Amino acid sequence: MVAVACQNDISDIRAITDDNNKPIQTSYNATYTFTEKGKKQYQLTAAQLDQYQNDSGEYILATGGYTMVFFDSLENEEARLSAQSGRYTEKQKTLIAWDSVVLYNTKGEKLETSELIYRQDSAHISSSKPVTITTMNGSIIKGRGLVSNESFTRYKILEPTGDLVIEDKQDSIHE
Fold this sequence. Notes:
Elements lengths: L9 H8 L7 E12 L2 E16 L2 E15 L5 E7 L1 E5 L4 E12 L4 E10 L4 E11 L5 E10 L5 E7 L14
Antiparallel strand pairs: 1-2, 2-3, 3-4, 3-5, 4-6, 5-6, 6-7, 7-8, 8-9, 9-10
């Protein structure tokens, strides 16, 4: 006689069958443009966007890679953010990007990190994770944690790490 048994955790069953965990809308290879008073503010292009609604509000989950472009008041590109995954919460007006996050500014500087938080109401970007910034002249700045404006033109690394190389220039007084 052979006996076979199967047991499922009730939380696993609820996660699959709970209607609150299913998206109310799914879009593939989608591009959305967000405007305010007729002016383009952001443009989001994603492999997959799932929109959810539950008791705590609405949120959009981007998976499979996405890019978000930030525009200035003249609708010129200010910054470009890409990541593998992200979650935008409408109520808090907050975007959390994670997994291979890269942010470029108009000066050609590049920020790389594993997680980035964008707060739309304050127009600030932050991270508590390790960050690497490559400047337009090729210098690399590393640290842990960052705060920045949304265009990534003014930023501060909270805990800089690594070596700082200072070029030794001859002083004309001592020549």
